[in-house]
Amino acid sequence: MRNLKRVLSLALASVMLLGMMVIGAGAADKTAADLTDMDKVTNKEAVSVMVDLGIIEGTSTDLTDIDTNWAEGYIKYCYANGIISGDGQGHFFPTQGVTVVQAAKMLLVALGYDAEASKYQNNSMWSVNIMKDAQVAGLLNGVEGTANDTLTRDGAAQMIFNTLNAKTVTPKFQYDMGVQYLSEYVVSTTTLGYQTYGMVKVTATVTGITADGKATLTNVEPKDATTLVNEKLPVTPDMVGNAVNLYVKGTLNSDGTLNKAEKLISTSLVIGTTNVLGTSTDGTALATLTDKVSTNKKFIAELEEDTSKVSYFVNGESKSAEDAAAAVKTGVIVELIDTNSNGKADLVKLTVKEVKTVVGEVKTKTENDVLMVAIPGVTSANTTLTYVKASELSGYEGLAKDDVVLTVKVGNMTYIEKAASVEGVVTGIKGDTSKTYKVDGVYYAVSALEGASNSGYEGNDFKNTYTFYLDNGNNIVKAVKVTEETVTKTAVVLQYGQISSTAIGSSFVAQAQLLFEDGTVEVVEMSKLNGTELTSDNFTTTTGEVGTGVFVDYSVDKNGKYELTKVESAEDVATDKGITSNTAKFDGTNVANANTIFLVKKGTGSNVTYTAYKGIANVPSVAKADLKGGQVVSKDSVATYVYIVADKFTGDVSAEKYTYIISAKPETVSDGNNGVDYVYSAIVDGEKTTLTADTDKLFTASGLYTYQTTDGVVTKAESKQDALKKGITTISGGTLVVGADDAAYLYTDDTVFYAIDEKAGTVESVSASNISADKDVEVFVITAEKSDNNTASVVFVITPAEG
């Protein structure tokens, strides 16, 4: 009788809490998958189990007046049995939301708590008493909100689920002077869920997927439920390696162990707490990821000592350790999982995806009442429409032409997800064969997944914007140029030419050599010049009127021929003061700014070079004597284009300095003027820094160099490796003796010693007392200026990498 009352109390409490969610009367004929808003449910396990038990169906009625009379019978029964008590003034407020404390009272009564004896009513502390007991019973686990907050249906479902997993109680009363009082609650050995539904919780680890998409389960607890639950419930590939929870109907022994598992209650798996020790997507070998040595920065976790107990899965399929190791490459998701909670990985999960591009419109059709889907580029290798069952695809909804997707096939199911992407301009490139590309300050490697390629990126393009599509490890799988280079509308005419012949069938061709905004020079074919259609008869006159070394606007017709028009508003560059870099009045007369394009012709004869600079901060200075002319095109009194003709630049050439190049493999970056620079890791003045060079031929190997910069860029360098002396014989009392020839130097307190570790790439400024005699080090000594006694100013002490 007591158990019947608890069943009824739970059912009625469920009705009151879940409101208009239909309450089931028996076994479920719906599953959580039938709930159209399941993706919005926070407490998925709670809702899933209650749907599976038939407590809720998730269907709303269409009765418009249900809020006023639907619960009348329930309210009366619950009031009579102490499940509810109203507000103490004759009101229940059935149309208002249920608060957390009100829900807790209903469910505590369902567990067997006596509302009157526990002072849940007719007591000023009723709320505190309820919340205290609810906390102890575990009813509030996973429920958000305070006592008086309105409970959401999601929260209500979680509280009922907690109640099902809570142990029931029986009040024990005693009498004092004939007055009954509650002495204690006797806690049962089983839960309300077990008593009402025979519900037994089962935990397991998903370690595989069958061909028909069912979960292979290991580490099943209780073990006697293994046969009943294994390979019975649907699973997705992301669940492989995860701990999961499910429920069966069964009977328990007196000690709480499972006596018999009768049937499955759950229709789906719910992910529990899974101990993923670490994840890798950069292609690091499994042997490295599991090698625990102090120098291994890629280490994640050790494998189980008994390697026979380590399982390997690739896309949900069991593999040998060797096959799994061979499958690791950049972009593959490697997860090391501890399923038995001993801190070591006993399951290695690899997800190997492919990269594909949707190349046509996604089509659907029905064949024999079966929905079929065709995704050009995904279900087929090209635009051909190859239809597959929609039930064998996941994630195809919403796909459109040109979408880049990642796919993985597990069993008969293909799972599709749109690739994430970043958009920006590449500002740096590192590496030789395995390059990384810097976009918005972040370096991205290139994925090695099948179908991945970075071929859409044009080498050393530091100007255009690209969309880089990424795999799950943020490695590039595809590059697509977003913005083509802006077509230059203004250029400088450098010279003219013509091709003409009296031969039959020949035609006249007018040519112009143009200097474009990006600094490139090209010979083009002209159709018109200043509105005149060019012929052999008017070519000389027309070109003479326009002249050379002047700005022209141009357009290109469908045949690729150029129509040039002289910019009549252009003015001459002032030549009486020269060009001053980083100055608004760059020539003393005209004004430029950071957006001004400077096109510079430098040199004479065969030594002429053309370079484009953007902004006054970047244009080089030119002395008055070296400035030969030019033109300025202005808008609103500010130069938009400037053409400068100079014999040479002034240039800020630095004094010769010493550097130690740590690595001769530079990072390639944009020089800001449509070219590239090379950035080297270096040691200068005892500090680790970088040096930028205009060529990758100056520093051909690591080591000691002298160098000079022009406008901050290294333009001259000379190796000093041959001048290094091997070994220190003596360093004490102000005397330093080095090398096989016993070269002797004096040192003082002002002498600077730099200790460089070639292998580590580190430098440290030390005193002479920190240096000792060593036959293996390499030494370079710079003597003080005007020194006639070989006094050392700076001493480099280098520990070779092989030393």
Descriptors:
signal, 48 strands, extended, SLH_dom, 803 residues, SLH domain-containing protein, mainly beta, 9 domains, 7-stranded mixed β-sheet, 12 helices, 11-stranded antiparallel β-sheet, repeat
Total DSSP helices: 12
- Shape descriptor reads extended
How large is the share of residues in beta strands? 35-45%
Low-pLDDT parts are 18-28, 56-84, 87-94, 484-488
Query: How far is the N terminus from the C terminus?
Result: 87 Å
Number of distinct beta strands: 48
Total domain units:
9
Radius of gyration: 40 Å
Protein name: SLH domain-containing protein
Keywords: Repeat, Signal
Describe this protein's structure:
The chain is mainly beta and 803 residues long. It has nine domains: 1-24 and 37-188, no CATH class; 198-271; 279-351, no CATH class; 354-418; 421-481; 489-566; 570-646, no CATH class; 657-719, no CATH class; and more. The protein has twelve helices and 48 strands. α1 (2-18) packs antiparallel against α5 (100-111), α2 packs across α7 (153-164) and α5 (100-111) packs parallel to α7. Residues 1-27 form the signal peptide. This is SLH domain-containing protein. Pfam families: SLH. InterPro entries: SLH_dom.
How would you sum up this structure in a few lines?
This protein has 803 residues and is mainly beta. The protein has twelve helices and 48 strands. Helix 1 (2-18) packs antiparallel against helix 5 (100-111), helix 1 runs antiparallel to helix 7 and helix 5 packs across helix 6.
Secondary structure blueprint with pairings:
Elements: H1 2-18, H2 44-53, H3 66-69, H4 72-80, H5 100-111, H6 126-137, H7 153-164, E1 167-176, E2 179-191, H8 192-197, E3 199-209, E4 215-221, H9 226-229, E5 243-252, E6 258-264, E7 270-271, E8 275-282, H10 286-289, E9 311-314, E10 317-319, H11 321-327, E11 330-338, E12 347-351, E13 354-357, E14 363-367, E15 370-374, E16 387-389, E17 393-394, E18 404-410, E19 413-418, E20 420-430, E21 436-439, E22 442-445, E23 465-470, E24 476-481, E25 490-499, E26 509-515, E27 521-529, E28 532-533, H12 539-546, E29 550-556, E30 562-566, E31 571-572, E32 597-602, E33 609-614, E34 627-635, E35 638-646, E36 657-661, E37 667-670, E38 676-684, E39 687-693, E40 703-710, E41 713-719, E42 725-732, E43 735-738, E44 743-746, E45 752-757, E46 762-766, E47 774-783, E48 792-799
Helix pairs in contact: 1-5, 1-7, 2-7, 5-6, 5-7
Keywords: Repeat, Signal
Domain SLH: 58-121
Signal peptide: 1-27
